[in-house]
Design a protein that fits this description.
The chain is of the alpha/beta class. The protein is built from 18 helices and 33 strands. Strands 8-9-14-15-16-17-18-19 form an eight-stranded parallel beta barrel, surrounded by five helices. A seven-stranded mixed beta sheet has the order 1-7-5-6-4-2-3, with helices on one face. The longest helix is centred in the N-terminal third of the chain and has 22 residues, at 2-23.
Length: 770
């Protein structure tokens, strides 16, 4: 009996494993064009031979074979012109560039492509379909099986890019190589390196050594947020930074080329140039008298110090820099930036004004058109194409330049398309990975709003209202990873992944093939590979986003998770939710004072962070707010906002001069105190208003003022990031309506260290009435 029981267990283990593997769908990201799944498996063993037709194929096949060396303990042999090999590469000129066909049977694998890129991407598909242990650095007890299938695949866009900002946060060479490898798995083919900014110059230029001796280093402000970092004082040591030697960059470019990735350098001009000007201040306008330093953060007015457009030495310098770029980067593109250039000094610089007269330029903005046009002419004379951000459309467009559409939804790039120029879409509102990737209460600090995994995935670059010719001029899409709020490479990885996988599917897969459910499964497979590579990534997609809305005196609590394959479980008694807690199926109607705790679960295992919502309880909670502000319900929904003005719990107004809202208590109440929650975030120009007035009424027609507070400029513009309640206490009154009116200060004063002259916004939450 024991013998038969052992045989039963053995057969159950053997056959159930094969059955599960056979029934498991092929989960890939990005999604392939066409796939037909079969039955059975092909197994890679130490006897497996890969046959290639030439040396170019041999290099790609050898890279694939080398994956097995450590985790499998063997390396498949690669032969040129091998006969009867288990894996064969066959050139098929009928296939388009970068496309491939894969035929996997139980006996062999046949890979068809017209170029080395197609063969490379076919191998990336096989790599993702192997057990994730293939990425490991230790011997794995694994059977190296691939499912039987037939696939035809190819990219939607020829330009599939990641922009990596190594100027704000220097990323060591070794970490850039890791990112390149992760990009290759996703079939991305472009790495745009942002190599210079106000905060650092990151590439050795042999003719100008001070660019890295001085420009690569800044003062260390520790873990202070980017917008809170004060500029370098005279005599302060600059100890934070780094740069790539030209040997480093040659290694990066070669490593990328082996993975079919083109590296595009960006040297940003004429603005974002403080690091270069700190090294060579004679390149700034002569009217600049202040000390020019490498900036650790926003820099206040200092970013207005830009290259002088009237100084001929500037163009000699930049042409020399471009010459060294041309030697290091075989890329057809050289990016020269052109974004966010404030012309404060150009307007008063005698050299710039003289240049305008000589070139018959009426507007100072046209001076930038001249500036960028000269660089474009030089780059074109060297057989390359200039790229730049969409501010280039503000003046005369450089001939044949490629424009990156970034502002808002990137539509400024369409002005370039109207003139027949190629463009790339990298809209800030969707594809800037500096933004929060999940519910903000759980995320590292940054600024602006959310670009979640699903936001990126749902992005469709070709809009319905486009002119037909626009789509032909669209080269592709780019995710842009700005690093102002990153302190090390792990921080960057966390922000990149898994959203870069969503970008890859937008860039590679045909839009009709996109399916969120399938993507989640393919993503899990990709993340399993990242786990084995020890690449950090965010689990934000499992976190819960809440929406709490007052509704007939109750609080309607809606809970959402991006993952559609999870259960949300919650408690109302203060206990931590677990596998036995109630499953959320519809919005909860709760009383004020309730504490909601919830989290996402997969197969009874908690995946996300625990969201805790302690719902406040006062006379205003759950009551209706009369206001023109669409988000005014946040003032009485019982949930207090965090230190982040963009966390979807703070109410603000477009009219910064004055704002007013009225709370209807729904019945006559005795009221003697009003507390108004106000947010201050100095670096983001969020401050208290100049004046707040509280009035009460029984009928919503006749109001009596019961409190007024005015704040001095010093009180309003106090440094820091904090929440405070503005308190109004008065003799008890029987009222039904409470009205709050605020008067804004206007623009931040010139003494504002971070944002002089910018609008000072006020944010309120929560209003409490007692």
């Amino acid at each position: 009996m024991n013998r038969w029981f052992f045989i039963y267990l053995w057969s159950l283990l053997f056959f159930s494993t094969d059955y599960l593997y056979a029934q498991h769908p092929i989960n890939l990201v990005p999604a392939p064009l066409l796939i037909e799944e079969g039955d059975g498996f092909f197994q890679v063993t130490e006897e497996t031979v890969i046959s290639v037709e030439n040396e170019a194929q041999e290099g790609i096949a050898s890279d694939f074979a080398d994956l097995f060396t450590v985790p499998a303990g063997f390396t498949p042999m690669v032969e040129i012109g091998g006969q009867n090999a288990a894996i064969s590469l066959v050139t098929d000129k009928a296939l388009k560039k970068e496309a491939y066909r894969l035929k996997v049977s139980e006996d062999n694998i046949r890979i068809y492509a017209s170029d080395t890129k197609g063969f490379f991407y076919a191998f990336q598909t096989l790599r993702l379909l192997l057990p994730s242990d293939i990425e490991g650095q230790t011997l794995a007890n694994q059977i190296w099986k691939l499912p039987v299938f037939t696939m035809t695949d190819g990219p939607r866009f020829g330009y599939r890019s990641l922009m990596l900002d190594v100027a704000r946060c220097f990323i060591p060479k070794e970490e850039v190589l890791r990112i390149l490898d992760c990009m290759a798995l996703l079939k991305l083919n472009t790495l745009h390196l942002h190599l210079s900014d106000d905060t650092g110059w990151r590439l050795e230029i042999k003719k100008y050594p001070r660019l890295t001796e001085v420009g690569a280093w800044r003062v260390d402000r520790g873990r202070l947020p980017f917008y809170a970092r004060r500029n370098q004082a005279e005599g302060e040591k600059t100890t934070l930074g780094g740069f790539y030697t030209q040997d480093d960059m040659e290694e990066i470019v070669a490593y990328a080329a082996d993975r079919q990735i083109n590296v595009i350098p960006e040297i940003d001009v004429p603005a974002h140039s403080c690091a270069a000007l700190a090294a060579y201040p004679e390149l700034a306008c002569p009217v600049v008298k202040e000390m020019i330093t490498v900036l650790p953060g926003l820099g206040g007015r200092n970013p207005e110090m830009i290259y002088c457009a009237g100084n001929e030495k500037v163009f000699t310098f930049l042409q020399d820099v471009i010459d060294e770029l041309l030697q290091l980067f075989p890329s057809p593109y050289i990016n020269m930036g052109g974004d966010e250039a404030t012309k404060t000094y150009w307007k008063i610089c005698p050299l710039c004004q003289k240049r305008m007269q000589e070139e018959h330029l009426k507007e100072v903005e046209d001076l930038q058109g001249y500036f960028m046009g000269r660089l474009n002419d030089y780059i074109r004379s060297k057989g390359r194409t200039m790229m730049g951000w969409d501010e280039l459309t503000n003046s005369k467009l450089p001939d044949k330049a490629v424009i990156l559409g970034w502002q808002g939804l990137g539509n400024a790039a369409l002005k370039a398309a109207d003139q027949g120029l190629n463009f790339v879409m990298t809209p800030a509102r969707v594809l800037y990975l500096i933004r929060y990737q999940g519910p903000q209460w759980f995320e590292p600090l940054t600024y602006f709003g959310n670009n979640t995994l699903r936001d990126v995935y749902n992005y469709e670059p070709v809009q319905a209202d486009w002119k037909p010719e626009y789509e032909k001029l669209l080269l592709g899409v780019q995710a842009s990873m700005w690093t102002e709020f990153c302190y090390n490479a792990d921080d960057v990885m966390y922000m990149l992944f898994p959203r870069l996988a969503a970008l890859a599917e937008v860039a590679w897969s045909q839009k009709e093939k996109k399916n969120w459910t399938d993507f989640q499964q393919g993503l899990d497979n990709y993340l399993a590979h990242l786990n084995k590579k020890d690449v950090p990534y965010a689990s934000s997609m499992y976190n819960i986003q809440h929406t709490v809305v007052p509704e007939k005196g109750k609080l309607c609590v809606k809970l959402d998770c991006e993952r559609t394959d999870v259960e949300i479980r919650y408690t109302l008694d203060g206990r931590v939710p677990d596998m036995y807690s109630s499953v959320y199926t519809m919005p909860l109607k709760l009383d004020a004072g309730t504490v909601v705790k919830c989290a996402s679960f997969v197969k009874d295992m908690r995946k996300g962070e625990i969201l805790t919502l302690p719902l406040l309880n006062n006379k205003a909670t759950g009551k209706h707010v009369l206001s023109k502000a669409p988000m005014a319900y946040l003032l009485t929904n019982g949930v207090r906002g965090s230190l982040r003005q963009s966390d979807f719990e703070w109410c603000t107004w477009d009219n910064l001069n004055s704002a007013s809202f009225t709370v209807d208590l729904q019945q006559t109440e005795s009221v003697q105190q009003v507390l108004l929650g106000c947010l201050t975030n100095y670096g983001m120009a969020v401050h208290k208003p100049k004046r707040v007035i509280v009035e009460v009424s029984k009928d919503n027609r006749t109001f009596v003022q019961v409190g007024q507070k005015e704040f001095s400029e010093t009180e309003i513009f106090r440094d820091g990031n904090y929440v405070e309640d503005v308190e109004f206490t008065f003799k008890a009154r029987k009222v039904r309506y409470v009205r709050v009116t605020a008067e804004g200060f206007g623009s931040c004063p010139e003494s504002h260290y971070m944002r002089p002259g910018q609008p000072a916004r006020y944010y309120f939450d929560e209003l409490q009435i007692r």
